[in-house]
Design brief:
There is one protein chain. The chain starts with a helix and ends with a helix. It is built from 15 helices and 29 strands. By secondary structure, the chain is an alpha+beta fold. The chain folds into three domains: about 220 residues, BirA Bifunctional Protein, domain 2 (2-Layer Sandwich); about 100 residues, no CATH class; about 100 residues, Anticodon-binding domain (Rossmann fold, 3-Layer(aba) Sandwich). Helices cover about 30% and strands about 30% of the residues. Helix 2 crosses helix 11.
Length: about 550
């Protein structure tokens, strides 16, 4: 049963990947050259969807709030930024290599295996006097026999220069829940070793250690380094935040799951600066958990942490991702970063498993303290209301744009059996995006393209709507086929201009009306052209 469910989820993901290419959501980067692993390009629909997500996040963080300012910082920062943050010394993943295929994996993502492990002390060459004393091991995978295992070992020793290996010192042992073997071919893996995830580059014409720089692995650190500048120019008092949307780069060992884990991606991060609890206590008892109502001066980190969790869940609901699709995971004490007091992850149920979309962390004052230490510049803030000087603490909601776009695509994908007016049943693929994030809001269709009056009227409607929303004009093919194309693009509304619009049919009351079709229900209603813009804007923002 579980295997059947896994296969169905895999099939669904393959269909989604296929649709993304077919309809222009996402392409493999540099595909004409065979592609490059971990890098993706967003096509016409994907770039609109991605921009909608970023615009909605930015508006909710800055334009709809008085206590958050924006920043757009450079990708390359001074190398000491990454020393202060700990990235140059600790930003690494444990890496292992397969001794047979040479493929590289993250050690903490190896699935545990059980079975019979085979061991050899080395091999001799039947055709020469060569000897290889390298030890090797294979795990006998389910459905494989002893000959398959020995064939793998023979391959290992052939790669070490033996023409006709004769295996030596063969023994076996039962192992349970081991992570030392590659589940793809049973080969032994190397011992884990640290692999720094930052992309290195050089600033200037000389490639030397003095000119080393890094592509930023996160957007947060620039916010901390600009904290004092933004404090001064924005004239905001704590509690207040600084947010940023931007590219980040991580040299992932094993990019996977389509765009979910990529080497180039975008982040949307907020650093919200708050009073330390001991300062907040001057304004009253500090709440020990979630506090009701609007933020108060006596709120400590726990109340602010839960406040931002609530705000972020409200935002997800506003773009169509509700509690039915999301899960919360509170990191255990042993899982927390050394500076974090608490972190809650917002997870989405992808076809390939439930995975993180966003983390909301209570980071203490670690980052500002580190930059004060390494730069020699004060990061202290004087609180006029509390008459106190301190290094602010931080609540950080950090979300991945690409992961969010993928979540929206997966959530939107539906297959439905529909029956046409002739009684024929077919499968309708429809992307049920919330209208706010849908790449195209409205499709405009003249019923027939060879009727100049219909085309002219359709062009008038198009010109009326275009300043306010993304509109797609389509006059090619049967009207049903055009509807289906827009269903796959996720367009929530379709407007058809027909002969009733022109007043050429018997009912004169239908003149200057259009047919408005809703994507999800496929219901159609007549709407006056004069009312169309107001109605669509209301539906899109509801």
């Amino acid at each position: 049963m579980a295997d059947s469910k896994d296969q169905k989820q895999q099939d669904t993901m393959e269909k989604i990947v296929s649709l993304c290419k077919r309809r222009g959501f996402i392409f493999q980067s540099s595909e004409i050259y065979g592609g490059i692993n971990g890098f993706w390009d967003y096509g016409p629909l994907g770039s609109e969807l991605k921009r909608n997500v970023k615009d909605l996040w930015w508006r909710s963080m800055t334009q709809e709030r008085e206590d958050v300012a924006g920043l757009d910082a450079t990708i390359i920062l001074h190398p000491k930024v990454w020393e202060a943050s700990g990235h140059t010394s600790t930003f690494s993943d444990p890496m292992v290599d397969c001794l047979l295929s040479k493929k590289r994996f993250r050690a903490d993502q190896i699935n545990p295996l059980s079975g019979t492990a085979w061991f050899w002390t080395g091999a001799t060459d039947a055709e020469s006097d060569k000897v290889c004393n390298d030890k090797f091991s294979m795990l006998q995978l389910p459905g494989k026999d002893a000959n398959w295992v020995r064939k793998g070992a023979t391959q290992f020793y052939k790669a070490r220069g033996l023409q006709a290996p004769v295996l030596q010192g063969e023994t076996t042992e039962q192992v349970t829940n081991t992570t030392r073997y590659n589940e793809e071919n049973g080969s032994l893996l190397t011992e884990p070793r640290a692999f720094n995830l930052m992309f290195k580059t050089y600033v200037g014409p000389v490639e030397s250690n003095d000119n080393v720089a890094y592509l930023r692995p996160e957007t947060a650190q620039a916010i901390f380094t600009e904290f004092k500048n933004i404090c001064e120019v924005s004239r905001k008092a704590i509690p207040f935040g600084i947010c940023q949307i931007g590219k980040a780069f991580r040299n992932e060992i094993n990019p996977r799951n389509f765009t979910f884990r990529s080497r180039e991606f975008e982040q949307m991060e907020l650093e919200f600066f708050i009073r330390p609890d001991e300062v907040a206590a001057q304004f009253g008892e500090v709440p020990d958990g979630e506090a009701e109502g609007e933020p108060q001066p006596n709120w400590g980190w726990k109340a602010w942490h839960l406040y931002w969790l609530r705000k972020r869940l409200e935002w997800y609901a506003s773009i169509g991702l509700t509690s039915e699709n999301l899960e919360l995971y509170w990191q255990k004490p042993e899982e927390l970063a050394h500076y974090a007091r608490a972190t809650v992850d917002i997870l989405f149920k992808f076809p390939f498993g439930t995975q993180e979309l966003e983390g909301i962390a209570a980071r203490g004052n670690f980052d500002l303290s580190q930059h004060q230490k390494f730069s020699g510049k004060s990061m202290e803030y004087f609180d006029e209301s509390a008459k106190a000087k301190y290094i602010p603490h931080v609540i950080e909601p950090s979300a991945g744009v690409d992961r969010m776009v993928l979540a929206l695509i997966c959530h939107a994908y539906h297959e439905e059996e529909v029956t046409d007016e002739k009684g024929k049943t077919e499968t309708r693929i429809v992307m049920k995006f919330h209208p706010r994030v849908a790449p195209i809001k409205v499709g405009v269709f003249p019923l027939l393209k060879n009727k100049p009056a219909l085309v002219a009227k359709a062009r008038e409607v198009l010109a009326m709507l275009r300043p306010y929303m993304t509109v797609f004009y389509d006059e090619a093919g049967a009207i049903g086929r055009r509807y289906r194309r827009q269903d796959e693009a996720g367009t929530p509304f379709g407007v058809t201009i027909d002969f009733d619009t022109l007043g050429e049919n018997e009912d004169p009351s239908l003149k200057d009306t259009v047919t408005l079709r809703e994507r999800d229900s496929m219901k159609q209603v007549r709407v006056k052209i004069d009312d169309l813009l107001h109605l669509l804007l209301k539906k899109i923002n509801s």
